[in-house]
């Protein structure tokens, strides 16, 4: 595992960072471990340094996603795979070797520890519901079933790193990663893990971060499969117009001289068709861009 770098983003996790590092070092011998101290105000950085791992200290809190990117991009010439996990002792670092093996031996591009395939003891009910909802949304939009869009335990090939540079700097980094990787057709695989109750206070807001999770999924879909995104908006308008039209025709056949709903029917159908047509054109542009990018990559290889 000498070509594996494990990044642990941490902010005010003095209660758990020491144990997380110790468990990670024991499970992943020879792997490089980087702790990104993201503006902590406690002893997180000092405890990490005591364990002889690389510590990068941000002067202020940049955000979960930004901390990960800093860890990934630091002097990464010799890295073959990246892994990351949270510093709150909820994820089992003992599963990293299995995830790493999938990437190195089974040609998996990104391997994810799913909290919903294994035992999930530490997640509040509202977060369970939210995470299942986001996994369902990603599955519907990408056509590929996943169970955990927001898992914070992952291993991925270093060649994929450029795809993640434009992802959000906050906690929505992980659902954005899942959505983007599935859209571009990479090999994505989940394994069951046990998720434990966290040490210390959670920094995730169910409402605020839930909204951000949804927006990053929607924006990723819009940028990579516009027809799926705009179709979701346009189809309800079109179907609503058709249903209202059938009702209006029925009223007219029963003797009503003029149905004002005919105007609304026409408007709904036209709006729905316009939105879907816009999505279709955008989809064609995105597909053309993808063909050009693939040709450019092939030319560079030659």
**Into how many domains do the coordinates divide?**
2
> Could you say which structural class the secondary elements and strand pairing correspond to?
alpha/beta
What does the main sheet amount to? 7 strands, mixed
**If you compute it from the alpha carbons, what radius of gyration comes out, rounded to the nearest whole angstrom?**
23 Å
Number of strands: 7
The CATH topology name of the largest domain reads Spore Coat Polysaccharide Biosynthesis Protein SpsA, Chain A
Concise summary:
The chain has 302 residues and is of the alpha/beta class.
Key descriptive features of the protein:
single chain, 9 helices, Spore Coat Polysaccharide Biosynthesis Protein SpsA, Chain A, alpha/beta, 302 residues, elongated
List the helices and strands and how they pair.
Blueprint: E1 4-10, H1 17-27, E2 32-38, H2 44-49, E3 54-58, H3 64-73, E4 81-84, H4 96-105, E5 110-114, H5 125-142, E6 154-157, H6 173-183, E7 188-192, H7 206-224, H8 226-253, H9 261-301
Helix pairs in contact: 5-6, 5-7, 6-7, 7-8, 8-9
Structure description:
- This protein has 2 domains: about 5-225, Spore Coat Polysaccharide Biosynthesis Protein SpsA, Chain A (Alpha-Beta Complex), CATH 3.90.550.10; about 225-300.
- Helix content is about 50%, strand content about 10%.
- The protein has 9 helices and 7 strands, in the order E-H-E-H-E-H-E-H-E-H-E-H-E-H-H-H.
- The chain has helices spanning about 15-25, 45-50, 65-75, 95-105, 125-140, 175-185, 205-225, 225-255, 260-300; strands spanning about 5-10, 30-40, 55-60, 80-85, 110-115, 155, 190.
- Helix 5 packs parallel to helix 7 (about 205-225), helix 6 runs parallel beside helix 7 and helix 8 (about 225-255) packs antiparallel against helix 9 (about 260-300).
- It is elongated and about 85 Å long.
């Amino acid at each position: 595992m000498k070509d594996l770098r494990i990044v642990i983003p941490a902010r005010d996790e003095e209660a758990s960072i020491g144990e997380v590092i110790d468990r990670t070092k024991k499970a992943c011998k020879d792997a490089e471990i980087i702790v990104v101290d993201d503006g902590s105000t406690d002893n997180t950085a000092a405890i990490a340094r005591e364990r002889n791992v690389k510590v990068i200290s941000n002067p202020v809190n940049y955000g979960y996603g930004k901390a990960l990117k800093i860890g990934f991009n630091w002097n990464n010439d010799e890295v073959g795979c990246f892994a990351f996990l949270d510093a709150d002792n909820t994820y089992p670092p003992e599963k990293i070797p299995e995830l790493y093996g999938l990437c190195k031996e089974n040609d998996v591009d990104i391997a994810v520890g799913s909290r919903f395939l294994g035992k999930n003891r530490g997640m509040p009910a509202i977060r369970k519901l939210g995470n299942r909802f986001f996994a369902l949304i990603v599955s519907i939009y990408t056509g590929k079933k996943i169970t955990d869009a927001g898992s914070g335990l992952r291993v991925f090939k270093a060649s994929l790193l450029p795809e993640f540079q434009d992802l959000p700097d906050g906690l929505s980094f992980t659902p954005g990663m899942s959505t983007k990787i599935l859209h571009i057709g990479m090999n994505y695989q989940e394994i069951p893990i046990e998720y434990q109750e966290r040490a210390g206070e959670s920094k995730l807001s169910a409402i605020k971060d839930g909204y951000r999770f949804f927006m990053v999924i929607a924006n990723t879909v819009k940028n990579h499969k516009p027809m799926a995104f705009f179709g979701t908006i346009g189809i309800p308008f079109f179907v609503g117009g058709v249903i209202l039209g059938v009702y209006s025709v029925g009223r007219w056949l029963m003797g009503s001289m003029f149905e004002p709903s005919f105007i609304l029917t026409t408007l709904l159908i036209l709006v729905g068709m316009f939105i879907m047509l816009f999505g279709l054109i955008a989809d064609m542009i995105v597909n053309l861009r993808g063909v050009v990018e693939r040709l450019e990559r092939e030319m560079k290889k030659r």
